[in-house]
Write a structure and sequence with these properties.
Mean pLDDT: 86
Shape: rod-shaped
Low-confidence stretches: none
Helix content: over 70%
Radius of gyration: 30 Å
Structural class: mainly alpha
Strand content: under 5%
Oligomer: single chain
Number of domains: 1
Distance between the termini: 94 Å
Length: 76
């Protein structure tokens, strides 16, 4: 038991340096921070998907309006 404690005391400065390094560069995150990052990612992905769907819907509506205009004008 005494031998284990002396080994821990011998390596304590290195252990503290590693802990401080991990804390400083945020290598390990808390679940709350991870959840926030996930929400940001999901919102961005949802926004991108919704934007693309809206863009496709507008293009489809434009094509239908063009077809109606052509029929009214007697082009086709």
């Amino acid at each position: 038991m005494e031998n284990n404690i002396s080994e821990i005391i011998q390596y304590a400065p290195y252990i503290l340096i590693m802990i401080m390094f991990c804390a400083n560069y945020q290598i390990f995150v808390t679940p709350a921070k991870l959840e926030d990052k996930l929400k940001d990612y999901v919102l961005k992905e949802t926004h991108d998907i919704a934007y693309q769907e809206m863009k496709n819907d507008i293009a489809e509506m434009k094509n239908k309006i063009d077809k109606m205009y052509d029929k009214i004008m007697g082009i086709q």
